[in-house]
Design goal:
With 110 residues, the chain is mainly alpha-helical. The protein has a domain of 73 residues. Helices cover 54% and strands 4% of the residues.
Length: 110
């Protein structure tokens, strides 16, 4: 992968409705993890939290700042992703498996 430049993942603007979709958010988190891994940045490092802070906009950034203040030295990439998911995804949201279940039909092809 040497010599290949891969752009950083897109910024997360919490005002955009697409971030309310659990599948979209989960995909973004996976892309962030792969990108950081390719850059040699460990997910357990504090450097990761700094990077995430620059990828957030709107009230997601406010949530990030509150999380860092509240958790201080205990804050981690993983703990913040859980907080972010809870903040962005409505409690009434249906996850992918539930969507697949609802779309299932006992009668195949008619």
């Amino acid at each position: 992968m040497k010599g290949i430049k891969i752009d950083a993942p897109e910024n997360l603007n919490s005002g955009d409705q697409k971030w309310r979709d659990s599948q979209y958010l989960d995909t973004w988190v996976n892309v962030i993890q792969r990108w950081l891994n390719m850059k040699g940045i460990r997910l357990e490092s504090k450097e990761v939290l700094d990077f995430i802070g620059f990828k957030l906009q709107g009230s997601a950034l406010t949530t990030y700042n509150h999380h860092l203040i509240k958790e201080k030295d205990k804050a981690s990439f993983f703990s913040f992703m859980l907080v972010l998911r809870e903040f962005l995804i409505p409690s009434t949201s249906k996850d992918l498996l539930w969507k697949e279940w609802e779309a299932a039909s006992p009668n195949k092809d008619g």
